[in-house]
Amino acid sequence: MEQHPPSDAPTASNSPSAGSPSETSTGQPSSLHQLLQELDRKVRERTQELAAARTHIEHVAQAHRELLGRLDQELQQPISMIALETERLLQTPLAGLAPEQREQLQRIQQASASAMHLLHAIMEPHRTPPAGLSRNIQPASIRTIVEASLRAIKDAALAKNVQITLRNATQSDRILADARLVKQILAQAADYCVRHAGTGATVQVDITPLVQGQAIECAIACTVPQADLPSDLESQFAQQRQIAQQHGGQFVATTTEGNTLRLTLRLPINGPTAAPIPPTAAPELRQPNPTASPSPASQPHAPLVLLADDHPVNLKLYGNLLQHIGYQSLIAHTGAEAIQLATSHRPDLILMDIQMPDLDGIEATSQITHAPQTAGIPIICITSFAMPQDRERCFAAGARAYFCKPVNLAQLSKVMADLLKFPAGAPSPHPPA
After folding, report:
1. Which label site among 58, 204, 212, 387 has the fewest CB atoms less than 10 Å from its CB?
2. Phi, psi at residue 358, to the nearest 5°?
3. What are residue 33's DSSP bridge partners?
């Protein structure tokens, strides 16, 4: 006969499972299960804390890089100009300077050299790698990059009551680029506009497609008081141009009618390997003024030196040096112009600045030294950034000598004289160490 269990005995449906993780055989919650839940909660909390700390560190590191970039950009050129001008004055014949004046100039020269060396030491770990070194090229949203760069200068804009407006005319804003470097360019450009715009002004940022959608342009513009308009605008953005060129793009700084300052970054959407963006206009050739009176340095048999530099102060200082030692000079303001003038005028020697618009000095040097009609022209490369790779890259491109700013004009004069003594194709008197 079938037997039934007592009504209060546990049935199979409500009896605790022997393997239940949540309760023991007495019906109490499992202490092991509680411990695992508590451990899981702490792991999630700790993970969130680490993610927040990592985000904070990245923001601090980016702000640090941007600050160092501004210091490098705003201190390097003035220090270099002081050193060059002091060196030029020290080249004045002894009768032109009192002993006290010469001693003071020597102190200034030593101080400027120390300041430049200190700036190089501080900036060396943070400077942008030259073209050819690894970059983190990944798909990115240009709008996201622009918005991040504008957030980086938000406090500076608020302090001056400057309004920032963003207009995006692109259908698709995806590009292949190093987002960190592009943000660095745009943040520095926006910061420059905010600092030069008048109080209460508006900084307009426009994102527009170019070249039938194969490129994107980011333009940052503002109205600047007449007294604050920069006189040497192009020379202040050498690093930005270099980064843009590494991406197959361009960085252009201009002022237009109505005191409008416009900083423009153009990038191909398919990354650095895409076809380069065509220039908006051919570089203007600035030939020497044919009506100018000939100076002692421009006599028929004086050596002709091509100065390739986009900074007017450097051109003036080097020009004064060449005139003082009896050389003629020819001026190029871009790398492309240097190649054109080297081909058409066949100078005896070239002083080539590395950081120049549209084509950097190293590429221009390579093209000149590898062209049959200009291969024998000795080239001296000059740079402000003093990155360890620059020296090797200059000599690999065909340079015969290399100087880091601030340039010792006496040493430069000696090297130029040595190079001019050697016929084309002779071993360099200043080979790489």
Report:
1. 212
2. 70, -35
3. none
